Amino acid sequence: MRILVLGGDGYLGWPTALHLSRRGHDVGIVDNCVRRNYDHEMGVDSLVPIETLHKRVRLWQEVSGLTIETYVGDLTDAAFVDEVFERFEPEAVVHFAEQRSAPYSMIDRRHAVYTQVNNVAGTLNLLYAIAEHDPSIHLVKLGTMGEYGTPNIDIEEGFIEITHKGRTDVLPYPKQPGSFYHLSKVHDSHNMAFACRIWGLRATDLNQGVVYGQATDETTLHPGLATRFDYDGVFGTVLNRFCVQAVIGHPLTVYGKGGQTRGMLDIRDTLACVELALLNPAEEGEFRVFNQFTESFSVQQMAEMVADAYPGRTEIAHVEDPRVEKEEHYYRAAHTKLLDLGLVPHLLDGTTLRSILAIADTHRDRVDPEAIRATVEWRRTASRLRTASPGLRA
Ligand code: NAD
Ligand code: USQ
Question: Would residue 173 show up in a list of annotated catalytic residues for this protein?
């Protein structure tokens, strides 16, 4: 299959591109490399050093003998997107290319506007490009479990049957997202569902949980093929952060009571899920939703699991929650559709945790303890960042 991986320079896009390339697909990467600029803006860096996009694509060719085409440009630029479609002629598009940090989107007005314009306009451009170039192209888009929020009822996979005043319908599941970033994903989902309805596009929305881990079968073939690993207070995700914190002797930063429960998955399962969605495409005109996670844990449980797996002494600290979120709540979310397609999950156990701790330990000298603190507060309309940089312009 000819597959375009949008956001192929990122944490998940890069290993997905390698995985699909190794599986025999013709892969093209699209990325504007803006993720690297966020690091410059925040004064932080990936824990694991990463090569430039061009260097790692060349290295992949040396290691595997396989070619990946690269297109450096911005999805919000319609002419660029059209040109990529004309040149690459994809049969499927995997779309990772968004600003993906909830805290980043909550820094201030400029970052909220940037996030929503980047994500919503980028995806809308893409929908037009597919409709105008070839409506049979299957769009596999990364959404988020955070679209649903934490309702006091079971979460279904995208849709819920509702009986109201004696009449019944299957409707989009109600959304209660927790940040302007998560809201951008909701807006994308609506635009995608609408495009499928009016133009007959085929799309899969992968409502993914929080990903952990960093090593995949392909990225470990050479140190230069490594993907990024974020641990800072803005881009670091919870389990990866806890592993870095344990290794440098920093207390594990459980926000508030720690009863926040999230769907989680191993990075290797991200790759497997995307591949399963590609190999089993949506029908013409179909907008389908898969909940992409394998297990759910509370933040407190995750801190305890990391503390148990780490051989040294570890302290768990309950710090004030900088976010506005339920710290204790009901959580039960369906996630059977990818299992039905054949997903065999890597579950979170001591071996996996120790392997992430080992990655953190290898690069412990690169950790900036100052970067760990959560600096973005949901209740403020303008958070005080530790960098004085003017940042990216929306
Ligand atoms: P990432 O920031 O590492 O990668 C995203 C990539 O997209 C970056 O390389 C960035 O430069 C690129 N990009 C952003 N805007 C672009 C634009 N306008 N044009 C071209 N390229 C652009 O993020 P990630 O962690 O790899 O996440 C990938 C996707 O998966 C995101 O959509 C995210 O919302 C979703 N997701 C991530 C997680 C997680 O735990 N990391 C969980 C659920 C969903
Ligand atoms: N948390 C802590 N301590 C920390 C960091 C986080 O208690 O040091 C808590 C947060 O308050 C939150 C939970 O852990 O309740 C998850 O936070 P996170 O930063 O790991 O994840 P989140 O902000 O939800 O975003 C990440 C990705 C995003 C993706 C989302 C999936 O950055 O791209 O969409 O996970 S989901 O959570 O299912 O929406």
Answer: no
181 classed as catalytic: yes
Please work out whether the CB of residue 211 comes within 6 Å of at least one atom of ligand 1. Answer: yes
Model confidence over 96-125: pLDDT tens digits?
999 999 999 999 999 999 999 999 999 999
Give the pLDDT score at 385: 79
Range of the domain at 58: 2-372
Residue 211 lies in a domain: yes
Nearest CA to ligand 2 atom 12: 260
Note whether residue 379 is domain-resident.
no
Domain containing residue 117: CATH number: 3.40.50.720
- The residues of the chain scoring below 50 in pLDDT are 392-394
Q: Is 237 in the pocket of ligand 1 (CB under 6 A)?
A: yes
Pair 289, 159: CB distance under 8 Å? yes
Write the CB contacts of 57 (distance below 8 Å, at least 6 apart in sequence): 29, 68, 70
Whether 19 is covered by a domain: the verdict is: yes
> What is the residue-averaged pLDDT of the chain?
97
Q: Structurally, how many domains does the chain consist of?
A: 1
CA-wise closest residue to 370 among 229, 237, 210, 248: 248
Which entry of 104, 181, 212, 331 is annotated as an active-site residue? 181
Residue 7 Cβ inside 6 Å of ligand 1? The answer reads yes
The answer to the question of residue 386 being in a domain is: no
Ligand 2 within 6 A of CB of 144: yes
Of the listed ligands, the closest to the CA of 325 is 2
Question: Angle 372-243-311 (CA atoms, 0-180°, nearest 5)?
Answer: 130
- For residue 212, which of 345, 94, 390, 366 has the smallest C-alpha distance? 345
Cα gap 21→24, rounded to integer Å: 5
User: pTM for this structure?
Assistant: 0.98
